[in-house]
Amino acid sequence: MEQKKYWKGLEELHNTDAHQEIVKNEFSEELPFESEGLLNATTPRRDFLKYLGFTTAAAAIAASCETPVKKAIPYVNKPEEITPGVANYYASSYAIDGEYVPVVVKTREGRPIKLEGNTLSAITQGATSAKVQGAVLSLYDTARLRFPSIGGTETTWAELDKQIGAALAGLGGAPVVLLSATLLSPTTKKVIGEFLAKYPNSRHVVYDAVSYSGMLQANEASYGKRVVPSYHFENAKAIVSLGADFIGTWLNPVEYARQFASTRKINAQKPEMSKLFAFESHMSLTGANADERYTHKPSETGAVALALLAAVGGSVTAPAIADKRVADGIKKAAESLKANAGKALVVSGSNDVNVQIIVNAINNIVGANGTTIDFASPSNYRQGIDSDMTKLVSDMNAGSIGAVLVYGANPAYDYFESQKFAEGLKKVKIAVSFNDRNDETTELCKYVAPDHHFLESWNDAEGRAGYYSFAQPTILPLFKTRAIQDTLLTWSGNTTTTWADYLKNEWISKLGGQEAWDKALQDGIVEPATAPALGGAAFAGDIAGAASKISSAKKGGKLELVLYEKVAIGTGRSANNPWLQEMPDPITRSTWGNYACISNKLAKTFSTQLGDDYEINAEKKVLKVKSNGKEIELPLLIVPGMHPEVIAIAVGYGRGNNVGRAAAGIGKNVYPFVSFNGQNFDYFTTDASVEATGQKEIVALTQTHNSYEGRPIVKETTLEEFIKNPKEVNEDRLELKKFGPDFRKDATLYPNYSYPGIKWGMSIDLNTCFGCGACTIACQAENNVSVVGKEEVAKAHEMHWIRIDRYFSGDEENPEVVFQPMLCQHCDNAPCENVCPVGATNHSSEGINQMAYNRCIGTRYCANNCPYKVRRLNWRDWNGADSFENNLYDVADMNDNLTRMVLNPDVVVRSRGVMEKCSFCVQRLQEAKLDAKKAGHPLKDGAAKTACQQACGADAIVFGNINDKNSEIYKIRNEQQVDRMYYVLEETHVLPSISYLAKIRNKDAAPKAEKESAHKEEAHHA
Amino acid sequence: MYRRVSILLRKHFVSVLILCASIVIPFSSVKAADPAKGKALFQTNCASCHNVHKKLTGPALAGVEDRWPDKKLLHQWIHNSASVLATGDKYANDLFNQYNKTAMTAFPQLSNEEIDDILAYVKVEQAKTPGGVKPTEAGAPEGAEDKGNDNSLLFGIITLILAVVALILMQINSNLNKLAGDKEGVPTPDPVPFYKNKAYLALIILVLFMVGGYFTIQGAIGLGRQKDYMPEQPIFYSHKVHAGINQINCLYCHAGAEKSKHAMIPSENICMNCHKAIKEYSGPELTTAEGKKVDGTAEIAKLYDYVGWDPEAGKYTKPGRPIEWTKIHNLPDHVYFNHSQHVVAGQQQCQTCHGAITEMDEVHQFSDLSMGWCINCHRTTKVQFADNNYYSIFEKLHQDIKDKKIDSVTVEMVGGTECQKCHY
């Protein structure tokens, strides 16, 4: 099978001179990058000797011949459940902004240090996302509010209660409004209800920064239920996404990605998989993973939906789709949906109620109701109705609201008319914020009553009707905060029952006893014993009405702007998280900030001077984007796969100065571009224009830091070809076979290691790796991987042990994308090992390529010799691990004593000048082996899990002992996936311990001749 | 220092013996009660609630026989206190009320003779002053310090003498040479005094360099190592008294050694498990390494102060404070060490690394905790290869044992000397 050309960016595709240059250079910056003046100074011999003497003396003093006296301080009264050095696990729930992920919290000596998915949950089955993995860091956020305050001065809770009590009593019947983001907790809602019942005309307004109001209202219009249904992607054979990024950001992506992944697991014995069509405006994670992807302008979303409805047999007249490719795509998608009726699903990311009604109509026709869409146990993921919020803002401005209590919402930042909200808030007599930090809204509130972090509080969450998950305190409150429920109970006059008791009583009466409640807390979940049957709903939507409204909606402009959420940052609620800020975006591979994504075609229309080195230089041209009467300046980023007439900008950036050092001053806020169409918020505009400013700004990209120079590292095929000949994808591996069975041993000068006990190995399935980045953040949390900051990322100094390489192939306007997690391959013939002059990196009898940090002297020979470029040098002292305090390079308070509580005490922090890389989570392997040894039985398969494996919601990573013939990894390599299994750069005979499974696309196989000619054309380009 | 203590102990022992004898002998002629037997019985049955001199859960036992009107009644009381209370005996009922109506545990298994033994022991004890026996003499311990078998000084002196002799001989040789030269008429250069002789100077510099280099390197290697480190602790806690004399299992206090990487310094509530009852020190005399006497009871009082316990009132009266012990065994941050691995999986004794801890009043670091020390042990120590089923996966090694190629498996053979066993 001939090799496709993969490129990580356009300059590689076109192989520009600048690209060739950078490939030749090992380092992306000029070396040395220390102060020039010092190095150019002429130093006489005597001075040199003086410096030498001084530094030796200084080093001796710093090394300190005096050994410091250390104290060992035991507990006065040791809590029974804590054994220092042994982790405790507590079930909890991540339920922020409507996302629902039951988790298990790992605590050490009473400190939560890691979140894992709760495998007992039927909804997420142990899956997590980058956001969930990063949430533990937010507990130790230095910007969290530490005490209640009135008018900016610290106060006591008693004083606050007194003043609020008096103020509320003096409202004189003016309504009290509790304004929150989507809440999943039924008991919290009950407490809110009891509080609001004390005040006449009061109401609870739910406001979501990125709204799904259109869907809720459409479901009300179509089915009489204002709910988000539960989706069952696992039952779908044909899926059409109309701009719904269900793998990355849509509703509850952790759940959907896992369901979707189950339809993408494939082997030669059972060559079946689902087919995903994506219609979208910018390149989303779902689009990148789609089998067929089409781009259109955001204003055409309705038209595409209508055309699809018509194509599946709906009684509407299809509007003309100008783009023939899209029109053909709709036809194809419709055929696929019809062919898989009852196993089909259409989802839409549009917040337009009419578009969603049409989508409901399509789903109704293709038999999704009751099969892939469940209305019997609907989900609670989003509850905000846009018109409720706009009404509240106008009521506030009219002065008719007595009190606004803000909980988890931040309209002063993310409401489209934030100024209007701020002015309205001034007219409200009592403004209270329960938010965790002094964010844009809290700044405007007189009374601040900070809530606990979710890891400090009791709570429950009902993600899907009948499916509950619980939260319990995993640490005593770090600050003088108080659970909002306690606060509301106090304010409603219930001073006898604490929230903990309230919740407990509520659940004991529901579950029928203390024992059941204890079990619920231990499991973390309460779910129906048998999954209830999926239920449909009778569709009664007004298709004609919706269709006519769609066609009369605002017409598309020449250039359109679309706002999207990034996988790691989302709505911006948790933006002050250095881990998430530094996580490379799956598509653009950029960190720390937002930017204007445009296509190469568009870039050329207003500036032909972008230059060949556009992607290589971190400094990007700054564009002025105008729309909707507002303008903003952001650096541009050329993203293959963007619609040529669309600009895409991520929300969640441009936060206020008080939200924390990581988020403040990063990027720009684009929520003001949101508009209200009378019924719903639109997250796109149709009248955008751009102009160059002549300025330049750094965008810290990671993918351009290395080059594979066109070597075949990714293998892929199509489903059709795989069914025809499953062996074809690995044809080239047959070449190696002819060298005989002893090739492994004979073809090398290396010693032939024997692995007498365990030999660790990993398998990564490129078909189910969606590139979401959960593994990267899980690894960061587990292994104390440093955060380096924007400037250092731009210098290619990022430290992630596992990165996800993103490659494009094919047409630059609508490329295919493949994600490849890349980490240390733990080669048996490791090229890094034999170039180390000090033996700091060497081989273990379990096949691990070990790294002894304290031996490393930082020559970087190993990194040079690594074919996979996975070794990371500590260019600076990121952790305060050096003897010299002034060497510390702190990014966003990562070295604050509070933040450092998140460090895993079983893994050291590395000092400057030391190489580091993936260790296969050796601390977990050692622990699992020790447990087995202590119990006196052989290591069980699955007892040792790496952090990336555990975090992966799609189960794309399998890890285990390949000497164990009953292990999953052995079976994958030798039984189930013989045809798809390959090693990256196998021809170099480095014998990696990580194998990959070739990607399979469920698309029509392109005729070979055509493909080859396309290749030739590309070669000519070069 | 250790020797000194043991001598003191011996002395102690003798005086106790004499004292006991002087009290016991007159009684023994009258009754057959044996205070030595009584002591053992007392410690098994009574000591958890009674002390001879002090009030614990129950009253102090000194003079108990005199207090009870009738010895028979006392026997009955000990066999079953409820039956005595039922008779309405005034003394018994007063006693019962005085101690918050806490019924005394019944000891029906004790025979009257055994009770008499215990009472005899109480009598012996009550004759002693409370707070333990004062040492008969406080004089300095006999300074019978052993000179040791270290002959290095002797060798040094001999080397020095030989060096001087060699120098003299060389000088004589050169003088004779010169004389011979003069005789033959061969002109010889003027003699250079030895301190200007380049050969000598070079030799001296070389020697200095080697000696200096040796000490520098040794010093550098020793940086951060602290073998024999014995810091002063906030409480004079004697492992010898607890783990040695009183035979308390190490794991009773250091419970983490079985479960965790940390052996765990016990929390104060563990101390109080025993020290609620043991309020004073009555063992052999304690001295610090410097020879200062230590009042054991005062050290227990320090514990009470930390934990906030009022021994008189018998309850906690103030919030506890943690004890800031000075950490003796310090490993660098980049070393992972797990106690449970060694204690449970490796079946090692605490003493292997910590030395004769049961002999130490003040703990010092027994091993140098250097990497060489760890590795050497891993090279020679055998794993529980046949007994622990975990190792069943090492098929080749099992085969080798069967084939008699090897007779056992060391830690090293299963990867125990690889970097990432301890460094990650």
From TrEMBL, chain A:
Pfam families: Fer4_11. It comes from the Bacteria. Signal peptide: none annotated. It comes from Chitinophaga ginsengisegetis. NCBIfam families: MoCo_extend_TAT (TIGR04519). This is Prokaryotic molybdopterin-containing oxidoreductase family, iron-sulfur binding subunit. Coiled coil: none annotated. Residues 760-790, 815-846, 847-876 form the 4Fe-4S ferredoxin-type domain.
From TrEMBL, chain B:
It holds the Pfam family Cytochrom_C. The keyword Cytoplasm does not apply. Keywords: Heme, Iron, Membrane, Metal-binding, Signal, Transmembrane, Transmembrane helix. The chain crosses the membrane at residues 153-170, 199-217. CDD domains: Cytochrom_C3 (cd08168). It comes from the Bacteria. PANTHER family: CYTOCHROME C7-LIKE DOMAIN-CONTAINING PROTEIN, LIPOPROTEIN CYTOCHROME C. This is Cytochrome c7. It comes from Chitinophaga ginsengisegetis.
